[in-house]
């Protein structure tokens, strides 16, 4: 069994009606080496947005991802195919910090008719940490605060997918013996269409479901 800890970066939404699109996928593969958990491999891919191909200044300032980065990248179907190939054939748990990346991923994949069967055994490490430390109901700790509490130094840059995935993976490694992972299927996850994905200061990202409103029902687009 391996553990795929992933993180997404999206275009920044600041106004109602704007669309958030995935522009980077980062992941770390965690497994046991002689009985000891550790990071075995990493994955990183930029993703070229298609609804709004030009990145806003806010997106670049927030993530550090440039227009050149995404212009040279594949579209989401190709990026997902590369990601799934990297995950490999072995059984795995798919892990993220919080529920938001899964919502975004499901929304975009469903909208673009990308197969979601690979999104199995998804676990929310943020929620799992809250259970381990018996935090109050609905109290969810941010990744930075979790790292500080566990005395894990943050490495890399905030709001870059691979760096956030690696830091999240360090939390999994540290708490490995205290976490209980669950098996599930993508169909069991809610198709949320209006929840805020995350806020940091005055920036926010919202789910991709708003894309459906851009095209009339009979549109061929």
From TrEMBL:
InterPro entries: 3-5_Exoribonuclease, ERI-1_3'hExo-like, Ribonucl_H, RNaseH-like_sf, RNaseH_sf. The keyword Hydrolase applies. Gene3D superfamilies: Ribonuclease H-like superfamily/Ribonuclease H. Residues 2-181 form the Exonuclease domain. One of its GO terms (molecular function) is 3'-5'-RNA exonuclease activity. CDD domains: ERI-1_3'hExo_like. Keywords: Exonuclease, Hydrolase, Nuclease. The keyword Repeat does not apply. This is Exonuclease domain-containing protein. It comes from Cohnella ginsengisoli.
């Amino acid at each position: 069994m391996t553990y795929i800890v992933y993180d997404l970066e999206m275009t920044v939404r600041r106004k109602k009606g704007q669309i958030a699109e995935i522009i980077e996928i980062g992941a770390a593969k965690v497994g046991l080496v002689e009985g000891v958990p550790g990071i075995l491999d990493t994955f990183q891919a930029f993703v070229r947005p298609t609804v709004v191909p030009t990145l806003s200044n806010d997106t670049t300032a927030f993530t550090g991802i440039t227009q050149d980065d995404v212009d040279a990248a594949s579209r989401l179907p190709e990026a997902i195919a590369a990601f799934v190939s990297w995950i490999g054939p072995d059984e795995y748990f798919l892990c993220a910090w919080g529920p938001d990346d899964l919502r975004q991923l499901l929304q975009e994949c469903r909208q673009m008719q990308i197969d979601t069967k690979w999104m199995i055994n998804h676990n929310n490490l943020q929620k799992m940490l809250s259970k381990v430390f018996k935090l109050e109901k609905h109290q969810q700790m941010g990744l930075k605060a979790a790292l500080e509490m566990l005395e894990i130094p943050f490495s890399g840059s905030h709001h870059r997918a691979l760096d956030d995935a690696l830091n999240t993976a360090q939390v999994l490694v540290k708490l490995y013996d205290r976490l209980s992972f669950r098996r599930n299927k993508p169909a069991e996850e809610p198709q949320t269409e209006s929840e805020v994905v995350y806020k940091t200061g005055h920036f926010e990202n919202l789910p991709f479901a708003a894309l459906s409103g851009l095209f009339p029902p009979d549109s061929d687009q």
